[in-house]
Structure formats: C-alpha cells, structure tokens
C-alpha cells in the first residue's frame, strides 16, 4: 500500500484534514468590505441587506443560514465563516471555495451571488437557496430513490461534473451531503472547500482530502489503481457510490449500521470487490454503475462518456451543459 496510517476510529462522513503541503494553484485575496456580486440585476449586496431567517446547518468552517434580501424579498443561503477562526486549513478551504465559485457558471453548480466581509471580520458567501436541502436529507426524509429518479439525479450531477472537469476543476468530495436539491428535483453540486483547479496538465491530485468513505481506490493506493491519475476519475467513483447509496438506502461498501475504523474502510475500498446492485434492477442501471465503479481509474468512464450511457441518455430532454 502507498499509505500507512495509525489506526483510529473513523466517522463514515468525517472529512480528512488537508495536508499542510497541499496548496491551491491559484491565489485568492481576502474579499473587500463591499460586496463582490455575480448578479448585476440586484446590484451590490451587503450584509446589511440580509435578514437571517433560520440556521440551515453547521460545519467546521462556519454556519449556513437561510436569509432574505430585505429589498427584493429574494431568499438566499448565506455561508458565514467567523472572523475569529484562525485555523489555516479553514481559511485555505474558504479561499479555494470562493475562487472556484467566482469562476463557475453552470445550471448544475450552485450559484454564488456575492462574497463580502463584515466589519466583525466574518466572511460571507451568498448562494442560491435550494429548498429541499441535500440528497442526504432527502434520502432520510423520503427513503430510497427509484431508477427513473436516480437517472434524473445522475444526469444533472454528471452535467455539473462535465462542466467542472472541462474547466479543469475536480471536486474531490462528491457525496449525498454535498449535492443540493430543489423541490422540483433540480440538482446542483455544492461545497468546493477541498476542490482543486488543475493549472497544468501534469498536475496530480491524489492528496488525502475530502470524505474518506467516498474516496476512490487510487486515492489510497495510486501505485496499484492510479494509472495516469489526475483526479477526474475519483469524482466518478464518488458519483457511483452516491447513486448506489440513494438506491439501497445505506453506504454501499459496508453492512447497514456498521461503524468502521480506518483500516476497515480502507480495506473495503482497496481490497474488497466493488459494490453490487441487488437482483431485479435493469441491465442499463447495472451497466451504468459498473462504468462508474471500476477499481482501476483508467477503466472508469468520464462524465462526458457517462452522459451518453443509455441509463441517462434515454430521456429525450437530456442535454450536456
């Protein structure tokens, strides 16, 4: 194995800390006190324009609020990172996320409307509000997804990934909790704190950041499974695990309810067989999942190729964005 670590108890969804030697390949300065906005129809948005309605969630880097724009009555999601946070990893991830959100413009990636700094030193990222939460919360609330619903979700996530990969951005943390959903089942990729822009074709991206349960085999052992690993194929593996979890209702590499330690999880990913769908699914769905969950990264289909697979392409409304 290319990686040897001390065994420890591991939460299935616990993100790994970013190594100190992992640096983004671009520099994002601290946002100015006036808003930087991508939506000129509303003009500049400042913190004083916003009214907090409720807390949507908490994370290592701050709190996400549902907010209302006082003048336009538009609802947004505000990610607020507190100015008293001196954790260099948190700040680095925040600047990386801001830099990527400023660069992206896709209907399948969460939209950033403004970035600003409050007088207290808090930094705010104002994003579109998705009223049904995440795929993770939807799974808990409504139960497992049918094949047609999964094809609908897969199509949108792959369109988002195809856009990101075309623009040399790898996400590195695709999982149900990082895909947002609207009540009309509009799906968008979010949370770019550990993502990376590949500035050179020779860039590799096999650092251990993200949520280890959804990491691909080559993230643990690039010598065995990596080939010409650049990071894009790792996102595809994560998509496959995410879709299978939505279908069977639990994390697919382990029995329901099992709480793995590091060694158990790493062995399941690297030494175990790829997860299999139960009997009774369509051949198209089974084939699609096999294209996502090849253990050798070079054998996995790309996002663009998966968008041509019959499982998602049979819908006449499908389009690559």
UniProtKB/TrEMBL annotation:
Residues 50-312 form the Protein kinase domain. It catalyses: L-threonyl-[protein] + ATP = O-phospho-L-threonyl-[protein] + ADP + H(+); L-seryl-[protein] + ATP = O-phospho-L-seryl-[protein] + ADP + H(+); L-tyrosyl-[protein] + ATP = O-phospho-L-tyrosyl-[protein] + ADP + H(+). GO terms for molecular function: ATP binding; MAP kinase kinase activity; protein serine/threonine kinase activity. CDD domains: PKc_MAPKK_plant_like. It comes from the Eukaryota. Belongs to the protein kinase superfamily. STE Ser/Thr protein kinase family. MAP kinase kinase subfamily. ATP binds at residue 79. Keywords: ATP-binding, Kinase, Nucleotide-binding, Phosphoprotein, Serine/threonine-protein kinase, Transferase. It comes from Prunus avium. Transmembrane segments: none annotated. This is mitogen-activated protein kinase kinase.
């Amino acid at each position: 194995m290319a990686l040897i670590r001390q065994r420890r108890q591991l939460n299935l969804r616990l993100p790994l800390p970013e190594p100190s030697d992992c640096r983004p390949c671009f520099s994002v300065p601290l946002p100015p006190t006036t808003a930087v906005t991508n939506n000129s129809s509303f003009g500049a948005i400042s913190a004083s324009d916003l009214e907090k309605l409720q807390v949507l969630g908490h994370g290592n880097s701050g709190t996400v609020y549902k907010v209302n724009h006082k003048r336009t009555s538009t609802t947004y999601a505000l990610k607020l990172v507190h100015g008293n946070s001196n954790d260099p990893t948190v700040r680095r991830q925040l600047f990386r996320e801001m830099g990527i959100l400023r660069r992206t413009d896709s209907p399948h990636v969460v939209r950033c409307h403004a970035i600003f700094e409050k007088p207290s030193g808090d930094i705010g990222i104002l994003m579109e509000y998705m009223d049904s939460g995440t795929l993770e919360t939807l799974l808990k609330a409504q139960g497992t997804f049918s094949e047609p619903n999964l094809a609908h979700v897969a199509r949108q996530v792959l369109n988002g990934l195809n856009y990101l990969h075309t623009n040399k951005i790898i996400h590195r943390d695709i999982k149900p909790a990082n895909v947002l959903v609207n009540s009309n089942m509009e799906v968008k990729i979010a949370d770019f704190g550990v993502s990376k822009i590949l500035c050179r074709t020779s860039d590799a991206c096999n650092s251990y950041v993200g949520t280890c349960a959804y990491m691909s085999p080559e993230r643990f052992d690039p010598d065995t499974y990596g080939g010409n690993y650049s990071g894009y194929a790792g996102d595809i593996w994560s998509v496959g695990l995410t879709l299978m979890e939505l279908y069977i209702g639990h994390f697919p590499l382990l029995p329901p309810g099992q709480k793995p330690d590091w060694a158990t999880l790493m062995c399941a990913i690297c030494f175990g067989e790829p997860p299999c769908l139960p009997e009774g699914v369509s051949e198209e769905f089974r084939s699609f999942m096999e294209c996502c969950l090849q253990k050798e990264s070079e054998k996995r289909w790309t996002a663009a190729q998966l968008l041509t697979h019959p499982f998602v392409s049979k819908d006449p409304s499908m389009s690559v964005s």
